[in-house]
Structure to design on (229 residues):
């Protein structure tokens, strides 16, 4: 069965600092992986996706993630945090047989001025 | 990606009322839609997969008689919470996806349901 683990339910950074949100997956087949962001009382917005092309994936708002098969990781990074990045972030793996998304527990990103 | 419209965004109603939530795919013919429930400070919990023209597939533990899903067209899926009670209060989110999962799901803005 596929699963996703997000290490750290809460991450706090200063404005301008590096953002690193961790995601590890478990999958018996090459996975499709996604990062989503959720602002309060809103749905989820896609940040980026990995579907077996380039291992370094660039997304919106300056975010990127690197797929590392040897580490079963798909960590999300951004070189310089902005106040508007404060939100909830979800890593997810897709079940190829059904199209279902399996979500991690989520990480709350706090950005301090 | 697909544009998904979810309505209403917020509903408050009395216990015992049935509430219908609509999820529309505005620019994509969606054979598959998903319904999620999200508790405060928690991740999304998949409730069911909505399949156009056929019965929805419910996840284990989700009462199909309580949460009625209809997907009569390629652009509309509805979730009806029947005889709602305070414990059904939650944030419900729909998404449009594809059966192979090689494309991202696109989400509606969610519905905040509050049962008094």
């Amino acid at each position: 069965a596929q699963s996703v683990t997000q290490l750290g339910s809460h991450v706090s950074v200063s404005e301008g600092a590096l953002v690193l949100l961790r995601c590890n997956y478990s999958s018996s087949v090459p996975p499709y992986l996604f990062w989503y962001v959720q602002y309060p009382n809103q749905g989820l917005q896609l940040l980026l996706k990995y579907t077996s092309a380039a291992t370094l994936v660039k997304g919106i708002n300056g975010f990127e993630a690197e797929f590392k098969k040897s580490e079963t990781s798909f960590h999300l990074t951004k070189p310089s945090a902005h106040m508007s990045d404060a939100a909830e972030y979800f890593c997810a793996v897709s079940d190829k047989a059904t199209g279902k998304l399996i979500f991690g527990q989520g990480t709350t990103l706090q950005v301090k001025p | 990606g697909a544009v998904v419209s979810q309505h209403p965004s917020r509903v408050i109603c009395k216990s015992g009322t049935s509430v219908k939530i609509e999820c529309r795919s505005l620019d994509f013919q969606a054979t598959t839609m998903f319904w999620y429930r999200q508790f405060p400070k928690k991740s999304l919990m998949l409730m069911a997969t909505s399949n156009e023209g056929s019965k929805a597939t419910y996840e284990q533990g989700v009462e199909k008689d309580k949460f009625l899903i209809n997907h009569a067209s390629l652009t509309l899926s509805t979730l009806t919470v029947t005889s709602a009670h305070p414990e059904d209060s939650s944030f419900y989110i729909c998404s449009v996806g594809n059966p192979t999962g090689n494309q991202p799901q696109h989400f509606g803005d969610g519905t905040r349901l509050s049962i008094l």
